[in-house]
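Provenance

Sequences were taken from public entries as deposited. Structures were produced by running a predictor on each sequence independently, with no templates supplied. The record for FAD-binding domain-containing protein from Quercus lobata is shown for reference.
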Amino acid sequence: MARDPKVIQKEVIDKFAQDLPQLYTVIVQHSDLSTITWAPLLHRFPWDIIFGNVSKGNITVAGGAMHPMTPDLGQNECAALEDAVVLGQQFGELIAQRSRLVPLEVAHALTQYAQKRRWRAAGLLPHICQGGCN
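Predicted structure for FAD-binding domain-containing protein:
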């Protein structure tokens, strides 16, 4: 995988932008080389989210770390907002019950969040695998 921004720029123009409108090639040609990087898109199966422990004590996984999606799907940000809503609901319920945030009960709130989010996060993956995943 190329690391040199000039090589990446040339490869994108020569191999990947040929079927796109000319405007895309012009944008890549005029891009600041310090902003060009190359990173592989990797498929991650959701097994760790479904069967693993994504919450332990006062620590949990949320946002991009919770969602096994490549950025080309454009759904990770939406799913992160859903995470924030569910986390807010869990902490809101805890505060409503106790009139304050009780540190010893935060772990339970995070466990509830993880249980509510695990299947939703895993369910977002099939969009990638419709043609079969390797």
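Residues 76-98 form the longest helix (23 residues).
Strands lie at 55-56, 59-60.
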